[in-house]
Amino acid sequence: MTLDLCQNKHMVLPDKIHSFHIPVMGIAFTLDTPIKVARFGISSAISIMEDNLLEKIREKYATEYGLEFSPISTKEENYRSKRITRYLDLVHDIIEKQLTKLKKEAFEPDSEITKYFELLNNNSALSIVYYQMLQTNNKAEKLHLQNELRNKIQPGCIDVNIMTKLDNVHYNKEGELIKDGSDAVVAMKGYTDSKLKNSSVILSAGMNPRLFNYMAEVGAFEPNEFGWFDKGVTIKVSNYRSALIQGIMLAKKGIWVNEFRIESGLNCGGHAFGSDGNLIGPILEEFKCNKATLKETLYSLITKSSKAALFNNTEPLPIAITFQGGIGSYEEDQVLLNKYHVDGTGWGSPFLLVPGATTVDDETLSLLTQAKEKDLVLSHNSPLGVRFHYLKGTSSEKEKFDRIEKGKPGSPCYEKFLVSNTEFTKEPICTASRTFQKKKIEQLQSLGLEDSEYRRQFDKIVAKECLCIGLSNVAIKIHNLVPFKKLDGVNICPGPNIAHFSSVMTLRQMVDHIYGRQSTADVDRPSFIKKEISVNVDFLAEMLEEKLESFNQKRIDYVKAFHENLLEGIQYYQNLKFDKPNFNELSSRILDGLDEAETKIKRMLQGFLLQLNHVPNK
Hints:
Elements: E1 20-22, H1 33-37, E2 43-47, H2 51-64, H3 79-104, H4 112-118, H5 125-135, H6 139-152, E3 158-163, H7 183-192, E4 199-204, H8 209-218, E5 231-237, H9 240-252, E6 259-263, H10 280-302, E7 320-324, H11 330-338, E8 344-346, H12 362-370, E9 376-379, E10 388-391, H13 395-405, H14 434-445, H15 451-462, H16 467-470, H17 473-478, H18 507-514, H19 528-544, H20 553-574, H21 584-591, H22 594-612
Parallel strand pairs: 1-2, 1-8, 2-3, 3-4, 4-5, 5-6, 6-7, 7-8
Antiparallel strand pairs: 9-10
């Protein structure tokens, strides 16, 4: 029996029980989130790149649920894709068992079937029927409504996330390139071979033609007999242009993008991107105004593709637009849903404080509850060379500092998913590795730099930290598994929003917060819009602190464009009108400080240009 997740395939769009989803976080933090929340109708995403971790967790859960487990050796052909498939199949089977049990329960106060309906938004159709059932004294009507409710129960979607740029190629023993053997393609094969239905693969970090070509070949993303998709495609984007370009590229290959998931460039967790100073309000406005055009453009291209026959007999397919990045209140969620007309929202970092939804060890959980803004940094710690949100004081950071103090900076590199540098070696190596940092420091020592400049560059080299294991170890700790090569440090990458949530929450408390039934955030928390302006201003300030001699014309033009985009975004908010009275409070919180931010940005650029005029040849 195959479980159809997000059922009701005769609908144009699969029904989703909740208006929010839990985005992928790190490697392990949401690895088993579907097992915790999918039976309550909540959708979430899994990172599937780290197959060694998936294999360890698969054994743990197979034992716990009495399901078959046979290990997949690294000596087996296609072992990595097989491990991914088996893990996803296991998650599918566990949720199927959970739902079967839940549907048979009585509607009693502490039962999971009661929890299912009490977690719903009070305004949802199912919630209204549920409370109607509770209030009626007619036994026949109560039984009828209970049966109706049981038949409407469906799980949340099990989505998977693939970072498209993590796509190292591999060779066989004869030195020949393995066809379809690159990391991202193998992860995709693991997903497409799984049992999951009405699930989506989320592609993040940009375009990958090799991966896109593979997706077009396998046929897993073609519409089914109902005109919908057993497996869909979600693209994580930062702006409308990126959505259009990637959507066009995939449509020409006969692949329909079911969802564009907009993420704030800097006001988010994990890896962060400056987005050229473009703020989320104008970005959402552009999506809102151009959604119909986007759909028509992509549909016209897909009906001319090599797979046109699969689409010509259907009406233009829908596209969902969702947003995630720093959302922290019911009012903000309502603005996104009702003003910008997004089809759903993603709530990430606050869920790290919900053991009933995510996986975080006690030590790290304690750090999260105590974290203030000063403890959360937009670091240079990622080996990918992309800025990375980072919580200071973790056990992994302590391990890193201990190695530096002992004169042995850098991590042992075992997993090798982030290898990319060939400065000193023929084969790519990771910039967080001991091998790279040793060679890079030796090179630095030969340059004869002044002490201050040497220290600045040294710190930049040793800041890089192993993420493959650091972002996996939380699951190792929680489930008492054998550590990776005796490395047990944990790092974590929450967004700035976590500084304003300071207590561990139950799943019910978190969902009640999202739906406005209670508030668990700090009262002085800035709105997600105001916070995004703040982190962009900080990002600009950091750029302007660089040595003036390092600015070429291209860099100068970028700073000017960043500055102009920020000002245009602030002017957009200053002119923003809220149509609904209940948005007035949020409106005042957004508008508060805009004039001050505008003045600060203008002064920053004026000061920069004034200093630049005194630099020769600038």
